[in-house]
Amino acid sequence: MEGNPTYDKDGRLATVEAKVRKVAESLGKDIRYLFYNWAQANVELDKVAGPAIIYVLPASGSLDFTWREVLDRPDSQLAFVAPTDFDFEGSKNDGIIEAMKRLCIRFIKALNDSGYFEEIDGEQRYQVLYDHLDHNVTGIVIELSLKEVEGVNLCQEPRRRGDEVDE
């Protein structure tokens, strides 16, 4: 991502990914944040020693055009994972799954508190993740449609609020 000039590493463009990253990073330095497709995340997880939040590169979504702005609404997958032993015991694995559910709850609460997206509420299904990747991790994956509250302003040149204007 460092080599990609369009990657919103400083959050200036206020992309959905930058907003998700900011929320994930607010949970503390002991939580690693990754933004990759599943194949890239599989490689990066070799370097992860503790819990991680993976925002999987969205494959689809929608752009909601209103009279004043465009709101991005990606169909998102978020994984909450932690390393585990190869031949784990069920009780140990269950403890990691429960810890990752709690991390997911903390993340959703922080996401809702951020005001970046419409509130996530109601039933959210999850899938348990283990033995799916090369690195031994256990956790859960949720799928959300993140709906921006504020998007790209259409009343001016297409840009995000807060972008600098050269005059």
Secondary structure elements and pairings:
Elements: H1 16-25, E1 32-36, H2 38-44, E2 52-65, E3 69-83, H3 90-114, E4 126-130, E5 137-145, E6 152-153, E7 159-160
Parallel strand pairs: 1-2
Antiparallel strand pairs: 2-3, 3-5, 3-6, 4-5, 6-7
Explain the overall architecture:
- The protein is an alpha+beta fold.
- Helices cover 25% and strands 31% of the residues.
- Strands 1, 2, 3, 4, 5, 6 and 7 form a seven-stranded mixed β-sheet that branches.
- Strand 6 and strand 7 form a beta hairpin.
- The longest helix is centred in the middle third of the chain and has 25 residues, at 90-114.
- The radius of gyration is 17 Å and the shape is elongated.
- The relative contact order is 0.20.
Cα-atom radius of gyration: 17 Å
The percentage of residues in β strands lies in 25-35%
Average of per-residue pLDDT values: 83
- The end-to-end span amounts to 31 Å
Instruction: Characterize the largest beta sheet: strand count, sense, and whether it forms a barrel.
Output: 7 strands, mixed
- Measured as a percent range, the helix fraction is 25-40%
Offer a concise description of the structure.
The protein is of the alpha+beta class.
Main attributes of the structure:
167 residues, seven-stranded mixed beta sheet, 3 helices, elongated
